[in-house]
Write a structure and sequence with these properties.
This protein is α+β, with helices and mostly antiparallel strands. The chain has eleven helices and 13 strands. Strands 1-2-6-7-8-9 form a six-stranded mixed β-sheet, with helices on both faces. Strands 3-5-4 form a three-stranded antiparallel β-sheet. It has a two-stranded antiparallel sheet with strand order 10-11. The N and C termini lie far apart (about 55 Å).
Length: about 350
Amino acid sequence: MQEFAFELALCARLEAPDRIVGRQLGAAVHGRRVADVVCVEPGPEFDRRAAITPHTIPPLAIESAVGPGTARSVTDAFDCHPERARAVAERAVELGFFERERSGSSAAVRQTVRYPEWFDSLVGIENKPDLDRPGDLRDQLRIDVSLGVFDEVVLATETYVTGAHLNRFPDEVGVWRFDPETGDREVVREAEPLATDGPGVELLDREAGRTNVRPVTAAEKRRQRRRIAERAYGKGWRTYELPDCRRCDSGAVDPVEYADAGLPWCEWKGGIVRPVADCGPECPGYEPADDEREAADDEREAADESGGVEGADDSEAIRARLSAWEPDPAGVARRQSGLDRFLE
């Protein structure tokens, strides 16, 4: 099975009402590393995060000198170019995380709420359906273990795992054998907890006879962990749109375990497809979507215009039903008495 289909099937299997699942998330601090799948386990303050916005709060807004106390000038509160600072602040205002005020003659913002410590743990999962074609797998897993931004690191594969396979990977890495056709998951080796509270070492690149690494501080790791969790919350894993084809139907999946997961299942090809790469009029099995689907799309657009969640669609409704994500929170924006005259 192609890695894309394997990855979506695994995400569907891992999604749960008490968990957030994201995929294709940047996991490096200084280098380049993308985690295939990340499972975020909510903590005691999760409800406070969910109440803010269903979208990703810009990391620079969270990391800025803006707090819920005294309003701060936008240009003074961010350690970046002023135009970038203004764009980030504006987005944070749109999401209800900042509110506008005036500080003298300058535009200023304050947080509407303290950003909560809302997640307990992060599990990073590397997908490699075929271990006979490992590619850079060993180096990728070594990066994850030595860096330590994840509490646990797991390798998921469809291959029968032998002792020789296990010897190629760091001992700390857990191994799952996952059957995407049935959804069955076998734990071949348990993952060992990683030291996320202390410093780490990041492998940047490898050359002939030389490996370049860079130390990472505990503070940098905390920042990256928060960024990963925040991106997973806002992005999720259904980052595709169903193609305009009657034969691709998220509700007609076989086996039945995936029937309500919103996967791009093609009845003509008999499996999960990549909508952008595999679908379209050039496909021999293509049939234009019927009027019923188009009418449903029109209804969703009308709901969005009338005040629904921006970009809301079937995939978001499915995500809200199957995971801990809150699509339509009440929000936390507030107005302090006497400050309205300063607002534009």
